[in-house]
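dude i think i finally got it to work??
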Amino acid sequence: MNLEIFRYAFMQRAFTAGFIISIVSSVIGVFVVLKGLSFAGVGISHAAFGGVALGYFLGINPTLSAIVFCLFVAAIIVYIQRNEKLKSDVPIGIIFAASMGLGAVLISLMKGYNVDLFGYLFGNILSVTHSDIVNIIFLSLIIIAIFLIIFKQLYYTTFDRQMAKVAGVNVVLIDTVFMMLIALTVVISIKVVGIILVSALLVTPAATIIPWAKNFKQLTFLTMITSLFSVITGLFLSYYLNIPSGGAIVLLTTLIFFVSFGFAYKK
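look at this
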């Protein structure tokens, strides 16, 4: 194999970003799937569109505005979900649509200003800069640190929510913090696969491994391996076939899922 791909600085940054995000999205994604929050990942990822548009509209860093906006959306989703008269997916669907609508309106008001919508919607990991790498590393460390702090309570609420409440675990607080971790993971993943496709990186690798994993540790480890393989191979395909990196990564991840599903179904 011709490895000239690694001679280019932009590809080195792309692989670095892909490696870090694969690990973080796998750790968070396992709980997203186990807790049945796949649609939440979709909702928050699309909310990022409104955050990015707001940043451009106000003339501030779009990544910063996306972080603040997505954290706010995550808190609102958990707050509305506490209303037992509404199903849990209702607030996500409402905010999903509202955020996309907000983004569309704000961008339409910025006449004469060219926003790289394709890059944000579908990802452009090849445009990752050195400052992007620094931001990804910084936010990833925050995500992992908070995740480790709440891990025991999160694990407890995932597998036995009622007993966790009885044991004194603040379930609402854990739900809110975890939803915010999803939001941060979405924001750092935008450059890799884009706003529209980022939920696939959160959900598909973990869903692929669940039928095969014998325990939680194995599930997490194999999810990381699957995600890393998809991102790295997707980057190679993107470079040599001259296709969008985000689409290549997500399609490969989906293909692996269906192959896994087919073998698991036969088994």
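The chain has a mean pLDDT of 86.
im so relieved honestly
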